[in-house]
Amino acid sequence: MSEIFVAIYVVAYRELLRFVRERSRLISSFAMPLLFLIIFGAGFTRTIGVMAPGVDFVQFMYPGIIAMTVLMNSVMSGLSVVWDREFGFLKEILVAPLARSGIVLGKAAGAAMVSMMQGAVMLLLAPLVGVAVTPLLVLKLIPLLLLLSVSISGLGLLIASRMRSQQGFQLVVQLIVFPLIFLSGVFFPVNNVPAWLEVISKLNPLTYGVDAVRQLFLSGQHGAMDAIGVTIFGHTMTVVQDVMVVAAFGLLLMLLATWSFSRQE
What we know:
Layout: H1 2-21, H2 23-28, H3 31-48, E1 50-52, E2 55-56, H4 57-75, H5 78-86, H6 89-95, H7 100-125, H8 135-160, H9 166-182, H10 195-203, H11 205-217, H12 224-228, E3 231-232, E4 235-236, H13 239-262
Antiparallel strand pairs: 1-2, 3-4
């Protein structure tokens, strides 16, 4: 058990240190979420108008943007695995007296810490676009975003465990992750789309992570989630139910990622 905790600490600390030292990565990690927020927010707010009683398009989209920031960084955590493999560092880690499960969890923990830093910056920008943020909301968001990050990092680590080049990893991630993000309800309610698209969106586990974050932001808007929340067979999902779906998905991915790493030579 001690080997697992040592592996988690060492690997997570290394991931965090690498992120802080790479200023270009630190800045570029916010580029896409802010680009989506500026372009979609400024371009569609007046056209779309009110999404639900008391909720405009920016208020609807901003929680999704925060979730997307965490999700994208978590998936890209797998890139460090591919980088380590290309430069031979991964082999040194695998032959070290460290538990394979600890290595995977350490990568996920490092990604979670980085994601929390990015999420904190996005929360600081919220008042600038008219989205209210309270200390109580932040306290509720912290465990949820940590769960999201750890769960989705399992997907990135699972993909990276079988990739041999950074270019190949980025291509596969784009083909898998971007459809998942666009079908997760970040930019539109999944209930107000064609039936076939609604089914696909509700089979997407990321949908429930975005919905949970949005529910925390809009908890003061009575009746809003009835109009824009995720419904299954007429039942509107609660935050607890969304969290259970995300946790189950994350547990499965982490088990698969650990199994895949255990087969590495």
